[in-house]
Sequence to fold (256 residues):
Amino acid sequence: VYNHYLALAERELDGKATDFGKQHVLLLGATGSGKTYLVKTLARFLNVPLSFASATSLVETGYVGTPVDTIVKNLLTSTNYDARAAQRGIVFVDEIDKIRRSFGSSRDVSGEGVQNGLLTLLDGCSVTVKGRGNEEHSVDTSQILFICSGAFVALDAIVRERLGSAEIGFKRSKKSTERVGIQDGATVELPDLVKFGFIPEFVGRFATITALRALERDDLVNILKSTEESILLKQQRMFALHGITLEFTPDALTAI
Fold:
């Protein structure tokens, strides 16, 4: 992310930019591990526009559903049709694991078709959007940062299989592979994602592929106790308006 905005800053300062390559990010992590919250917080600190999309609703251009370039149109709309501001923004596509390729005989318009459509946006293209009064706005996607995320539920097994196949001998230890997964620090490699159902060209556009650790009980208790948006703090404030002091014991927090 830093490298991406460094290149944009250099372009604004002297009109040219060093080619650091595409800096798009692929986030892997269990549901509830904070992927969306992480990206929202990042955009807020950077003070850049942010557009959300779910990959499950996308279809290949020309078919019934939400066309892929709609995610760029939504980013432009969020900036009140300011193309320059939109080109500094972040597009966050969740549920990206749901567009894995299907290996049936019919045309895969919501899987491989969407991957190819997103590939064009990741590489950089001009998207024309009609605004108010049918005026046209052009957005260059080469300056937009794309962050894609998903739970990738079946990917752990693929990684474990690859790690296990590297061991040789009759006394092969299961200990090293049976509990090792992407959230335990095991590195996900491009062939793993291809086997999962992604085309190599698509996953090859991500400079960073990383996994978030699933939240443990202590993490969840800490969130309840000390975060600004804690649901418990909101409950305490609501009860306080009625003159009631609401208290939670440590055991109660653990149970919750």
